[in-house]
Each structure stands twice: as structure tokens, then as C-alpha cells.
Fold:
Amino acid sequence: MIAKKVIVRGRVQGVGFRYFTKQLADKLGVTGVVWNASDGSVRIEAQADETVMIDFVNGVKVSPSPYGRVDSVESEIIPIDESRRVFKAI
Structure:
């Protein structure tokens, strides 16, 4: 199991990005949370098996939203949060 904080920049707010990210996470079995940040980026804290996390981050890089555009994705490993059982869009 691995956990990551992901910062996504581009046209990612107001285009359904969080909703489609949640759908991708649910499909892959990823737990965590996604939210809009005040700087216009979208922040994600996610956890899954390492191979699943690779697929999830790759899916986010190409924008799960058909209306979005991803310009950059930064990620870093964070501690696992055992209390996260689902993926939430807030």
C-alpha cells in the first residue's frame, strides 16, 4: 500500500474534474479525497496498492474529465491514513 499527495494544475476546476477523478478512483479501488484548492489547482490525497496508484496517477495526468486539461502533475509520498475507506470529492 502507498499513499500520495497529488497536485494537478491546468483547466481542472469547473469542468467536472473532481467528479471524474472520483469515478476513476472508485473504478480502481483507490481511497482518499479530492478537492479544489484556492490557487486554482486540484489536490488529491490517495492510497492504493502501488501498481494501482501508478494507473490512478496516469489516469489523472490525462484528465479524467473530458472538459479538463492537465498542464502539470506533482506528487509525493505521504503517510498512509488507515481511516480512509472510500474516495470522497469535497
Summary: The first strand starts at residue 2 and ends at 11.
